[in-house]
Amino acid sequence: MKLSSSAFKNNDPIPRKYTCQGEDVHPELIIEDIPQEAESLVLIVDDPDAPGKVFDHWVAYDIPVTGKIGEGAMPGTQGVNDFRKSGYGGPCPPSGTHRYFFKLYALDERLNLPEGLGKGDVQKAVQGHVLDQAELIGVYSKG
Hints:
The protein is mainly β. The protein has a single domain (about 1-140), classed as PEBP-like (Phosphatidylethanolamine-binding Protein), CATH 3.90.280.10. It contains 1 helix and 9 strands; from the N terminus they run ββββββββαβ. The protein has a 6-stranded mixed beta sheet, covered by helices on one side. Strands 1-3-6 form a 3-stranded antiparallel beta sheet, with no helix packed on it. Strand 4 and strand 5 (about 55-65) form a beta hairpin.
């Protein structure tokens, strides 16, 4: 499976539009080579460079199997990010350049979990159900 974006290439800077200094919407995501037996997708976006802990920017689950997640769309069931909000919260590093990992998982079932769960609960629920996974990394600094 492959995950890419029309807004930036892997390991390149995330455009300001998709950050707290811009419109704070997520970029379009393009998904290729999804396993045929996939029943749902899970998307987690986090920042491992945040001070003190990995900072979660987006948790979405039970996303219908699709080849594209449009810019700003909120597919599937939305979890809670570390801004304590539902949906996407764009990069907003306090200092320096941070990496943002867009992690996509194809599952063999729908999770049927309630809205508002955090990354940890979703990661536990996907165990044993991941058919394939893909990752896209973007970087950002407020500079």
